[in-house]
Amino acid sequence: MIEKVNLAAKLATFADHWTPRMVGEVNDCAVKLVKIQGEFVWHHHEAEDELFLVVKGRFRMDFRDGSVPVEEGEIIVVPRGAEHRPVADEEAHVLLFEPRTTVNTGNVTEARTVRTPERI
Amino acid sequence: MIEKVNLAAKLATFADHWTPRMVGEVNDCAVKLVKIQGEFVWHHHEAEDELFLVVKGRFRMDFRDGSVPVEEGEIIVVPRGAEHRPVADEEAHVLLFEPRTTVNTGNVTEARTVRTPERI
Predict the structure, then answer these.
(1) CATH code at A70?
(2) H or E stretch covering B54
(3) For residues A95 and A32, is the Cβ–Cβ distance under 8 A?
(4) Which end of chain B is more exposed for a tag (fewer CB within 10 A), N or C?
């Protein structure tokens, strides 16, 4: 039988920030959940667009030419090549929809880089 | 500047059922919103998985071997080839992630078939 995914239940299974977990796959894309707080690293994705949907809280997406506040129930799509940096003053819960191969820090490798997200 | 999408604001722009609107694009996938109520048609998608995320309300996904109730904040991914039929006793608002080319009624053509969703 095909199983559904409860976002809140999946989010309750982890507490750390900036480490996306995979909760589903659709065609060649992954559905990921991540908790964020603080400033992430500036990066871009060479060949992949990335969708962020705020499930809880809010964050700000910084671009080199300005910032976009993204609230609960809002989506932002970062097109390939666009340098961006998510920043959350308080903890926010975000659903990501992106190719299975997308690395969270894009062209940058640092302490928070996750190449193979855990499936939860 | 890159614009965000407020799901509730987009959903407020239309009232009809079973007619998905496109609100964003991510790689070769479309993000669509649809209001559903009643029984849809049994169908499948030959080559595409389809993700349903309940933004408001609830619905039931019927499969030939059983049904899955899907609540607000829950996701169900219908794999390619699986015959399915969404049913909503009361109006529900659903976000869809699927290839840009996916037709809502899959292998079936009927009155509610939408081949080119309006972009809102």
Answers:
(1) 2.60.120.10
(2) strand B50-56
(3) yes
(4) N
CA distance A91 to A59: 8
Place of tokens 């998905």: B20
Whole-prediction pTM: 0.95
Interchain CB contact of A97 with B (< 8 Å): yes
Task: Return the bridge partners of B77, or none.
Answer: B51
Q: How far is residue B67's CA from residue A92's CA, in Å, rounded to a whole number?
A: 32
H helix intervals, A2-120: 7-11
Which 3 state secondary structure label does DSSP give A14? coil
Q: Which domain holds residue A67?
A: 7-98
ipTM of the shown complex: 0.94
Answer yes or no: is A107 within a domain: no
For the stretch A44-61, pLDDT in tens is 999 999 999 999 999 999
User: CB distance B51–A23 less than 8 Å?
Assistant: no
Looking at the DSSP bridge assignments, the partners of residue B55 are: none
Closest chain A CA to residue B80: A27
Q: Inform me whether the C-beta atom of residue B55 falls under 8 Å from chain A C-beta atoms.
A: yes
3-state secondary structure at position A47: coil
In a domain, A109, yes or no: no
Q: Count up the domains in chain B and report the number.
A: 1
Signed CA dihedral, A59, A33, B33, B117: sign only:
positive
* Per-position b or e across A7-31, b if 16+ CB within 10 A of its CB: beebbeeeeeebbbbbbbebbebbb
